[in-house]
Amino acid sequence: MADSLSIKDNRTGKSYEIPVQDDSIRAMDLRQIKVSDSDFGLLSYDPAFMNTASCKSSITFIDGDKGILRYRGYPIDELARKCEYLEVAYLLIHGELPNKKQYEEWKHNITFHTMVHENVKKFLEEFRYDAHPMGMLVSAIAALSTFYPDAKNITDENSRMLQIYRLIGKMPTIAAFAYRHSQGMATVYPNNDLSYTENFLTMMYKPPASPTYEANPILTKALDVLFILHADHEQNASANAMRSVGSTHADPYTSEAAATAALYGPLHGGANEEVLRMLEEIGSKDKVPEIIRQVKEKKRLLMGFGHRVYKNYDPRAEIIKKIADQVFEVTGRNRLLDIALELEKVALSDDYFISKHLYPNVDFYSGLIYQAMGFPMDIFPVLFAIPRTSGWLAQWQEMLLDPEQKIARPRQIYTGYRERHVSK
Ligand code: ACO
Questions:
Q1: What fold does the segment set 73-266+377-385 form as a domain?
Q2: Nearest C-alpha to atom 10 of ligand 1 is from which residue?
């Protein structure tokens, strides 16, 4: 069987052989299909990229039907059980897990860049007291590009790596500064003797008057695992934004600001915040059938359910459900958990959800854990952006090094007026 596709254009009667590689055809191969010499050629129309591969990538593999997620070939549950977040970040960026020496160096380099310029702190302090931390984060990441003009040097490998250290290192600091601002609390500077996650929790929660603060090791581990689960997810909306802006050769801070902005939306990283708002609104288990009825009548979405690629249980949701038990042993049970479990039970046995392959996604339970750990809802998408930074940067670097990539510039099918003239 030849690896090709035979296409007959019934408009002209002409036939074409289009090569098939990696179970796909090249959209550019369609361009030769024309009705006349002056014809532009056939386009493929794919709003929301439902069936278009925008790149070749060796970073993350997802099989949505089987519920498989792997980073660089390693199953997500193995990474979650055996690795620390920073090891996984190294894996995403470099393609291999680090050996001991490489890991020590990597940790040192990231830790060395956890501080931000005092002006970044001042800039954050100028936001309104009730500013959403995601708005602050997007702005602060974009602002970093003005502090590091050397980042424009995107073709230089050493410069790229320096920006990678800086971005992974500074994200927790900016996130914690934004949180403390919203609480009216003095900022806590990074402590480079602590692990990545412990340092973040300390910058978030250390009481201003207390000389010491020790993050609970179970909560630290739980957050570290959540960071691993959120580190990458191939060509999602925010990775696509990172690649798209990066393809213009903008510096990585500007590109990551765009990716973070994409993550802010309630259909993407903002979903776990929406899940909690929904659970709060439901209020008690007996209201679950009414919500399910509204969802089936298409009056609302069941937030935390459904996924563009997973048409099975999101493997991350399964791991998160297990972490929830450990966290609730420390923090006490989140009262919204019973409502969530009831929602899941009812939805998973209902034909509407079964026929549409709607299962809980990563956001369905993560918000409950974050809330139990004391994080306010506004900060949830920020907790997603911190670890996703390593994934975005891996995607960005891969895009830059891919000789087939160019500035990302889709086509359109114009549906507006043909030429017309101003009548005066
Ligand atoms: N609740 C109810 N119905 C849903 C839901 C949901 N959460 N999600 C999808 N559907 C229905 C749609 O109405 C549609 O029904 P139809 O075939 O009768 O028109 C069908 O299922 C297919 O849904 P699409 O919207 O076409 O699926 P798509 O792949 O475009 O959307 C998305 C995926 C955006 C995640 C969607 O499922 C959704 O909005 N979920 C709620 C928000 C959410 O939890 N987002 C987090 C995603 S995970 C992440 O970003 C980390």
A1: Citrate Synthase; domain 1 (1.10.580)
A2: 306
